């Protein structure tokens, strides 16, 4: 009997539904024994049910393959994600977890196993390709059985030193990695290894040919680097910061052609920077801060991919190469606390993706360049340099994302650009110790009610403090000391600043009066500078200032007895 084409077409939805059911039955429905193992696991561990988001919903009435944190294949559990489940206490060696023989992906990160040891039974889960026990409160030692997990692609045993301490102890580093030839990502942040470079470098290069991510910060590694490491040509991430190398950066680091992230900060490195390290075209993050590195910076790649360049608290010196303007993708630049000098290259105006800029505590001179093309800038810190010249609003008017501007301890002059206060996200203006002259204009067109710090200490400002300053209602720090401001002020006027904690009015030509200051409604002050303010009495509002740490009423005209409440 022949069936019409129309009849066949009508059967397609039914067949599709049936096939979908079969797929679910094969790959989605949890096998009974697998579900029992998970329920046994739930009953055997302790967790905070008010904070947990997965375990609390595991129950017999629903299929375990539908449970949050569980991944199945053909009814077998292949993935278990219990990260941040507020698990606490130990993990028993006989836990049903170690009977989940099909597990390929296991995540127990960010829990609190209360300094218990990592059970050696983890070595039974031989199908694991991903194991993450990071920041889970396990303590020493790492069991030798971890080396049995020969299918591992990712291993993360990282630990915050404040949470617990892991070490290899009886398991040396070479033994840990000798069978893990498939490993591409190794995270051992905070694990006490304490091996010299010739050992850990050779172990990595001989056992992990496919390694792409190497994170061994805070591992107490020591000198020197060994050249065998350069065999790992797939490496894209090298994080070896906070170790104790006492050596120069090896030149073979230039040869990692896939390198995207290099962190060697706080590792007691010495000497000059390899000439081509800044020429690696794939490098996106370079952190060499807090080392004894010295000498001038070499040239940057003409099409550099760097997004973060962190060189703070080193001994780099000389002028910045103009090629720094090639880093068109740079979003974070920290050169603070170095020995750079000369002018800030005008080519930096090309860094249109900058978000954070810190070049403080150097010897830069000359004018402040314009950053108006960097429309995403949130922080500019050029303090403690020798910068000169005037700054105008044209430098900042396009910086609608600007939050902090710190130009302290320079030799800048001219008018303070009041239009800065129209920037909507602006929070901190720090211009102290510059020779800005003249009067402080009125604060008009204020958009940033988030401004919490106005620091104009030790300028050459004079005349009255504008009354419109009280429009800056979010101020926490108002620092106007050591200028030539004049006029009289009632202290109770500052009650309008409800969040004020630091007020500095010392060493001006002000007459400060404290009549009628309501002691109960005055904001909680931590630091109050009223020196040389012609005060004739101790302000009564101080009786309720329980947070006060610093008080300077020196060089005034206060007479009579000191109040009992002082």
Automatic annotation (TrEMBL):
SUPFAM superfamilies in alphabetical order: RNI-like (SSF52047)
Positions of the Leucine-rich repeat-containing N-terminal plant-type domain: 34-73
This protein's UniProt keywords: Glycoprotein, Leucine-rich repeat, Membrane, Receptor, Repeat, Signal, Transmembrane, Transmembrane helix
Domain of life: Eukaryota
Localisation per UniProt entry: Membrane
GO cellular component, one term: membrane
Keyword Cell membrane set for record: no
Pfam families reported in the protein's UniProt record: LRR_1 (PF00560), LRRNT_2 (PF08263)
Membrane topology term: Single-pass type I membrane protein
PANTHER family, sorted: LEUCINE-RICH REPEAT RECEPTOR PROTEIN KINASE EMS1-LIKE-RELATED, RECEPTOR LIKE PROTEIN 30-LIKE
Protein name: Receptor-like protein cf-9 like protein
Name of the encoding gene: HCR9-0_5
């Amino acid at each position: 009997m022949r069936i019409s084409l129309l009849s066949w077409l009508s059967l397609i939805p039914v067949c599709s539904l049936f096939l979908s059911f079969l797929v679910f039955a094969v790959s989605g429905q949890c096998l009974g024994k697998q579900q029992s193992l998970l329920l046994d696991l739930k009953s055997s561990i302790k967790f905070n049910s008010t904070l947990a988001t997965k375990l609390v919903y595991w129950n017999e009435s629903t299929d375990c393959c539908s449970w949050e944190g569980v991944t199945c294949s053909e009814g077998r559990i292949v993935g278990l994600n219990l990260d941040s489940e507020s698990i606490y206490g130990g993990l028993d060696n006989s836990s049903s977890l170690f009977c989940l023989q099909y597990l390929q992906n296991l995540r127990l990160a960010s829990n609190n196993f209360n300094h218990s040891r990592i059970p050696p039974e983890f070595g039974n889960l031989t199908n694991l390709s991903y194991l993450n026990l990071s920041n889970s409160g396990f303590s020493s030692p790492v069991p030798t059985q971890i080396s049995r997990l020969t299918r591992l692609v990712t291993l993360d045993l990282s630990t915050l030193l404040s949470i617990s301490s892991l070490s290899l102890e009886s398991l040396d580093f070479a033994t840990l990695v000798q069978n893990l030839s498939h490993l591409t990502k190794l995270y051992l942040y905070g694990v006490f290894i304490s091996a010299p470079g010739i050992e850990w470098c050779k172990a990595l290069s001989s056992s992990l040919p496919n390694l792409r991510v190497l994170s061994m910060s805070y591992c107490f590694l020591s000198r020197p680097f060994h050249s065998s490491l350069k065999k790992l040509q797939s490496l894209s991430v090298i994080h070896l910061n906070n170790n104790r190398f006492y050596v120069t950066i090896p030149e073979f680091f230039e040869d990692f052609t896939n390198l995207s992230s290099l962190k060697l900060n706080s590792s007691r490195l010495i000497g000059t920077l390899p000439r081509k390290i800044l020429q690696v075209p794939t490098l996106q993050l370079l952190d060499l801060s807090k080392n004894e590195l010295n000498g001038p910076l070499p040239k940057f790649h003409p099409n550099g991919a760097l997004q973060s360049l962190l060189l703070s608290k080193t001994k780099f010196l000389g002028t910045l190469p103009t090629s720094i303007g090639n880093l068109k993708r740079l979003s974070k630049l920290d050169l603070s606390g170095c020995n750079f000098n000369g002018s800030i290259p005008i080519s930096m105006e090309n860094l249109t993706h900058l978000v954070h800029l810190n070049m403080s505590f150097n010897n830069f001179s000359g004018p402040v360049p314009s950053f108006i093309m960097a429309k995403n800038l949130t922080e500019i810190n050029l303090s403690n340099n020798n910068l000169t010249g005037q700054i105008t609003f044209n430098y900042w008017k396009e910086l609608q994302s600007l939050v902090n501007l710190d130009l302290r301890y320079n030799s800048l002059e001219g008018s303070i650009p009041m239009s800065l206060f129209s920037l909507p996200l602006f929070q901190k203006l720090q211009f102290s110790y510059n020779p800005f002259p003249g009067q402080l204009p009125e604060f008009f067109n204020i958009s940033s009610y988030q401004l919490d710090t106005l620091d104009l200490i030790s300028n050459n400002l004079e005349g009255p403090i504008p009354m419109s300053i009280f429009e800056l209602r979010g101020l926490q720090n108002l620092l106007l000391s050591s200028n030539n401001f004049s006029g009289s002020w009632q202290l109770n006027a500052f009650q309008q600043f409800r969040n004020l904690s630091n007020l500095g009015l010392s060493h001006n030509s002000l007459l400060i009066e404290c009549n009628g200051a309501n002691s109960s409604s005055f904001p909680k002050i931590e630091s109050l500078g009223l020196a040389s303010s012609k005060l004739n009495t101790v302000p009564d509002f101080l009786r309720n200032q329980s947070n006060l740490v610093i008080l300077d009423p020196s060089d005034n005209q206060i007479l009579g007895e000191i109040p009992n409440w002082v």
